[in-house]
Structure formats: structure tokens, C-alpha cells
Amino acid sequence: MSNKLIKAKDLEAKMLRWKRIWKLCAVLLAVFLILFVFLWTRVAITSAKFEKQMEQMVLGKDYFMEDVAIRKKDTDSSPSGRYGSSTNYFFYYDTDKKMQVPEKIYGEYEVGDSIPAYTTDHVYYGYEKYGILPRNEFRDNELMKAAGAVCGIAICMLALYLFLCKPKGER
């Protein structure tokens, strides 16, 4: 008889522990959901601000198109899963500055050629018009996108855990 009491107490302790873990995961899910909405709202607002800024810019006043001499060409490859790799293409100008270009453009130009590029300060250039956006704000927006994606993955994992691992008393 005492053996049954001990097993019942152990089972009750396990159930209490599972319920605590489940409640903690539910709270974490709520926090991640709020963070997810906050991050993607900020990304949307910043992206809309960038779009509006791009539309209002005037060539010759707010930004310029200049020819930039290509000093060096370089690629940067990184594995992107089991299906291949991702390659970024760069043209170097000045001594150490670089701009990213599409693969097609990379193949069209050689070292020593000049390429038209966008600039706002005649120091930093970008092949595409979005390359002239404020660097820190643009980088921070891209990092927020990455954080939002990680947050979304955490939400999916927690939701899956909560859905599949409910305490036995709540099924």
C-alpha cells in the first residue's frame, strides 16, 4: 500500500513539473509573439520610410550618378544548405571600398572599366539606388529582419511543443 502512495506522489510531482514547464513555454510563446510583432512592425515602418525617401530624392540634388573606376573584382561564396552555395559579387574602387553588384554586371565589366554608380557623398557608391540609403539604418533594418526570422522560428518551435506536449491532465 505504501508503494502505491509513493508512486502516486511521484506521478503528482512529475505532473506538477510538466505543468510548470508547459506554463513557462506558454509565457515564452506570448513574449516571442509580442517581440515578433514589434520587430516586423519596426521593419515595415523603416522600409516604408526608405521607400518614401527614395521616391523624394532628386538626381543632381540629393544623389548623383558618377562613373567609378573598377580597381579589383572579387567574389565571396558561402554554403547555403545542401543544394549549393550563395555567391556575392563585388567591385572594388578607391583603395579599399567595395560595392556589391549582380552576377550579370560582374561578368560584363573588367578591371579598369568604369561603371555608373549612385552616391550621395562622392565617397561611397552603390550599383543600385538602394545602395545610397543611410548605412547604419539600413544595416539595423536588415538585422531586425534576421531577428524577426529567428523569433518566428522560436514561435513555431514553442507552439509545436505546446501543441504536442500538453500535460496529461489537460488533453
Summarize the structure.
With 171 residues, this protein is an alpha+beta fold. It is 53% helix and 21% strand. A hairpin with a 5-residue loop joins strand 5 and strand 6 (125-126).
Radius of gyration: 27 Å
Q: Number of DSSP strands?
A: 6
Task: Give the overall average pLDDT.
Answer: 85
Q: Cα distance, first to last residue?
A: 29 Å
Query: Could you give the order of the helices and strands?
Result: HEEEEHEEH
Assembly status: single chain
Proportion in helices: 40-55%
Which spans have pLDDT < 50 for at least 5 consecutive residues?
Answer: none
Name the strands of the widest sheet in spatial order. 1-5-6
- Given the helix and strand composition, which structural class is it? alpha+beta
Count every helix, treating DSSP H or I runs of 4 or more residues as helices.
Answer: 3
DSSP strand content: 15-25%
Main sheet specs: 3 strands, antiparallel
Overall morphology: elongated
Structure description:
- This protein is an alpha+beta fold and 171 residues long.
- It is built from three helices and six strands; from the N terminus they run αββββαββα.
- Strands 1-5-6 form a three-stranded antiparallel beta sheet, with no helix packed on it.
- A hairpin with a 5-residue loop joins strand 5 (114-119) and strand 6 (125-126).
- The two termini are 29 Å apart.
Strand and helix map with partners:
Layout: H1 2-56, E1 64-69, E2 72-79, E3 85-93, E4 97-101, H2 103-108, E5 114-119, E6 125-126, H3 135-164
Antiparallel strand pairs: 1-5, 2-3, 3-4, 5-6
